[in-house]
Structures are given as C-alpha cells and as structure tokens.
Amino acid sequence: MSAAIFDSIRSQFGSLAADSTVSHGTLVLPIEPDALMGLAQTLKGTFRFDMLLDVTAIDWPARQPRFDVVWHFYSTTHKVRVRVRTQVGESDPMVASLTPLYGSAAFLERECHEMYGIRFTGNKDLRPILLYEGFVGYPLRKDYPKLGEQPLVNYREGFDIADRTGN
Amino acid sequence: MDMKIPNPIRPAFDTPQRDDTVIVNIGPSHPATHGTIQIIAELDGEKILRTDVHCGYLHRGFEKECEDHTWHNLIPYVDRLNYCSALINDFAYCDAVEQLMGVEITPRTKYLRTLLAEYSRLADHLTCIAATLMELGAMTAFLYLVMIRDYIYEHIADLTGARVTYSYGRIGGLARDLPDGWLKRLEDILVQYEEFIGRVHGLMDRNRIFIDRTRDVGVLTTADAIDLGFTGPILRSTGVPRDLRKDTPYLAYAELDFEVPVGIKGDNYDRYYVRMREMDESVHMIRQLIDMLPAGPINVDDRRCTLPPKPLVYNEIESLINHFKLIMDGPRVPAGEIYVAHEGANGELGFFLVSDGTGTPYKVHVRSPSFVHMGGASRMLDGYQLADLIPTFGSINMIGGECDR
After folding, report:
1. Residues 6 or more apart from A46 whose CB is under 8 A from it?
2. Topology, domain A2-165
3. Is residue B270 a contact partner of residue B245, using CB atoms and an 8 Å limit?
4. Interface test with A, best of B363, B368, B403 (most A CBs within 10 A)
5. Which of A8, A138, B108, B197 is the most exposed place for a label (fewest CB within 10 A)?
6. What is the pTM of this model?
C-alpha cells in the first residue's frame, strides 16, 4: 500500500524531487526551497497528507549551503510518512512558512527559528518559545558552545562558573 | 546589585481589546497547573477571550546535550522526557537506533518491551486522570489511582532499580531480564487495578459535579485536532481511531487483540473516558503478552552494540577491546537519518536521528506530543470560563520534561 502511494507521489513530482528515495519506510523528497509551498499544497490537497508532525533543521557547518530544513508529514488516510528536506544558506536562511496550510506549523517553526535561526516567511509569530526573550545566538547550531551560559538573573558576586564545571 | 529581573517572555498582547476586559497572567508556577506553563489570558469577567501559552521553563538543552554523548550514554536523558512513562521513551529511542544499525531484537525483548510499554501507558494515564480529578476536588479518586500507580512504580523498580527514571532500554536489548516472581506480582496489581478503577468509574462517570465541569468544556473538532497536529488520546477523543499501534504496528502490536477507544465530542469528559478505556485495553494487552512471552536471550548477539559477557572480557583480549571500544567510543551507527514514531501515552513520540557514522549522534530531535499540544492549547481554552482552564489543562496532560526538552 505504501509503495503505491509513494510511486504516485514520485511520478507527480518527477522533476521537482528527482533524488527522492524511500528510507526506512519514509519517502524522502529533497527539494529546492522555492518549491516548498507548491509541494506542500499538493501533498495536502492531492495526497491527503493532513498532518504536519515536525519541523526541524540540521546544521552542517562545513557545507555550503549550511542548513537542511526538514519537515515530516503524515497522512491519516494512507498511514505513511513523507520527509521533505531542503537546503538553505547561512547568510539568508529563509523558507516559506507552512502556517497557511497547517496550524501546527506555527509552534514548530517558532522552535526551529530560535534553535537554528531559520526564518519562516509568513509566520507572523516567531517569538522565542523554549528560550527567553533576548537570548543571543542559536543554541543548536554546531558553533554554539555547549557550556555557553546567558543567565537571565545574574550570578551572585564572587561566583565563578569555572569552579562548578571544573575548567 | 540590580535586582530587577527582565521579563523572560514577550506576551502576544498586553493591551485589552475593550475597556471592560482585563489581562491576567497565570503561571508559570501555579498551584492548579501541574507543570510549569505560563498563560496570558484576556478575561471578560470570568470568560477567557484569548490566551497566549508559553512553555520552555523546563528547557535544559536535551538535544544539544545528546550531541556530546555516545548513543548508549544518552539513554538516561531520554528517560527524562516523559517521566510518567519513561520506558516508552527508552524503547522508541532504542528502536530508532536499532533500525538505523539494522539490528533485530530478540523475540523475548520484543514482547517484553511491548508489555512494559503498555504497563507504562497504564501508569501515565493513571497519573494524568488522578491529577485532573484531584484538581477538581475528587480526592478519593486521586488516592485510589495514585495508589495503583505507586504499586506499578514500585513493581517496575523491582525490575529496573528505579521508580521513575529507569534507564532500562539498551540498544539491541534490555538492561536485565525479569526477576523471579515478577509476573506473579504483575497479575496481583492488575487485579487490584480492576477493583479500584471500578470504584473510580462509580465515583466519577455519572457524577453531576464532574460532568458539569467537563462535559462540553474544551471541545475540539477532529478537523481542528488534525490541523494542529494533535495525536494520542486528545485526537481519539474527537472520534477518530488514529493509533500508531494499529496504523503502523511496531514491536508486537500486530499480534495483539485490542480496540482503539474513541470519544464523541472531543471535550474534557471524552478525554477522561478515552484514557480510562485505554487503560483497560492496556491491561487486556498485558495479559495476552504474559502468555505470549517466550523464553530466550534478551540481548542480541551482535558485538556492534551488545557488551560481551563478563568472563570473556576478563580472559580474552578481543572481548576486552570490544568492551572498551563500546564504552569509550560508543556503538558505531551507520551514517544516515531516520524518523521513528511510537505511540506514547500522550501521542506520537517521534525520534529524528541523524548519524554521521561515529559513536556519537550528529543530531537527536524529539517530536514531543506535549509541545505540539501546547501549540494548540489556546483552541481548547478560548471561549470558556477561567475555572475551565484547570480541567482542560489537566486533560491535555502536558508533561514539562518532554514539552520543553
């Protein structure tokens, strides 16, 4: 069943996602950033992928363009998953927001924005959600130090972070 | 010393829409919300007009921390996502890594994991219902349910050595096999569960106060629930039997006989009742699994992930090095990426793992049901009374550990 639906998706998007593969039961569609909105509309409208489960990014600092943005869709009709991925550069990490199509996109994109600095054009509410207002940097990027601290409330005077971490 | 603490959040709205409404802040530390959540609400009298939900007060950099540990070492962190049913997290994570490595677990482990996952779901639903009922004043029902939950916790502690954070899953198996008499005690607890759950049904199901507080409160339609990405009991309470254990069976679920209970209206009462029925189904599954549980080893015989037997480590150089490399470098997971979802107690618990071929994950991302549910919580709160926030929030069962990661 899943193979049939995957085949029809692949034939529909033929040139758009030429490198599509099936990996561990999930159809993976690598696309250009500009193609996202049209692809998501077709996935939702034609192939009934009615749930957007997850939005995240992967940081490859040595690669150009630097980021992969990854979406996971699920169809409650066909009971299969599709992973859509695209590459965006560090200087302008911008992709379209899927908020017009999926209500769940609003929160998921907020998290991806604060963690990786990916900007989702069209999402009007990209305030921090897990981090706090005024946090500097994007903690899940590989160049953000793991022990980096930005306390919202200052430590007591004389407190040395190095004492605690043993550095 | 400047004592002024900057506001950690920027509310979506800070001026009332009308001159007779008021904006109040609820949380993040509020006695009636179990979980650190902050809700900015605009009230017209006692009616909630709009809300802005903030989470993140329990954020501890789980995903960042995972990138600095071997695949095995981060199992204890995984436990602390949904700490009410930590074994489900363990098994979902291990399943994802095993699929990436191409490891097939032994039959005994397959059935044991299924049994323990259902046992954890039972404990999680007991916690959720108990807390929700207590917040509505039903102290007796709370004590009945939490008593059973504590029997389960102590019982799992006999197996894993810990009450809440078990660290029991292993890549390719489990930490240890069942102790003697464990299954006998399991049956005793299930019998007690049935007795006390009957009492809770008697106390709550047709209770006028409970129905008035929960019926037609926090109503969610199926279309809204799917649009907002809701899964688990909340989605099923709206009337669709969407359950990963049926839809995309994993572990031993394909061989089990069970039903997927659904609600009618998607309100708080349905969410309560769906969870009550799911617990009965879990007990039914556990009984089947006790009979199906085969004998045999619990760990796969694969030196890529399983530690060699201790006598060999002490007496043979190859096994010593094997042990050393597995501990120091971690199991080598082939480069690639995978998304594996299990039906957690609150909904779809997904692990998105990226490996670059070393013993340490390149990226671990958790698709946590609670976070997605918080994203759409406003849809269930707006338009109802301020007091309705308590049962609605309780029935969502937001778990801070997995929501904020």
Report:
1. A12
2. Beta Polymerase; domain 2 (3.30.460)
3. no
4. B363
5. A8
6. 0.89
